[in-house]
Amino acid sequence: MAAASRRVAVLDRPAAYLEAGAGRPVVLLHGAAGRGAVWRRQLDGLADVARLIAPDLPGHGDTAGPGCRRIDAYAAWVLALLDALGLGPVVLVGHSMGGAIALTVALQSPGRLAGLGLVATGARLRVLPRILELFGEGSSRGWNLISSLSYSPRTPAGTVTDAEQALRETAITVSFGDYQACDAFDVLARLGEVRVPTLVVAGADDRLTPPRYAEALAGRIPGARLVAVDAAGHFPMLEQPQAVDAALRAFLAALP
Ligand code: COA
Fold first, then answer.
1. Which of 40, 169, 181, 243 is the most buried (most CB within 10 A)?
2. What pTM, to 2 d.p., does this model score?
3. pLDDT tops 90 at residue 168
């Protein structure tokens, strides 16, 4: 069944999200310059085991407003979204910048989470200076550089086109803010403080957040489980959706 497009007021402004399924709430956060629809395969593939909610962060997709320039600010918005939807402890899953946001929520407000999913992300997300330079100049050439590093060589062209669509629709000022937020993010020294059951998913061919970032997450977060997805780059949920669904499904089934 197709996901429903919904809206809710978050901090007095309308926010858009996609929703599918019923059961334990699982909130899926997109990455820099993305939108909730990047999780469309999971909204479809996991609807039999969870209530899946994939918001468009401020300034992205159908949620208007300026974006944020700090991961903490996005984390505060996500907590306000959980309040607005009246959600109790949720499983919070984030991709790339969304993973940084989810990790921040886990460190700041662990009582709001029943589980944490970290997909193609890291505890420190330094960004290539050239990417920041191009977006800072308002140049769309930043996308070419990001694209050249994003996918597994085995990913079909159609999937790449699909993944690129949302990115290139996002305003360059918002994208620049996202990459600045990533560049300033660093909780490597705090991973031992995470007290939420955690799943780490890595794309084996990821060059933007390479597998060593995932190994650091899984090695330092107590009890975390690592799943490496073969033939996937920085977008495993689109490049290998069935493997990501299987990892999330097993993780959800094992939660108390
Ligand atoms: N987890 C574990 N280790 C990490 C890490 C993470 N998330 N982030 C950095 N490190 C490690 C690096 O492996 C490196 O270790 P080393 O000294 O043993 O080689 C060290 O910390 C310093 O790395 P970094 O902070 O990245 O600084 P740098 O000056 O070496 O490199 C970049 C800067 C931008 C070139 C590099 O971070 C990079 O290539 N990033 C990926 C590309 C990108 O732009 N990604 C976008 C992310 S949203």
1. 181
2. 0.98
3. no
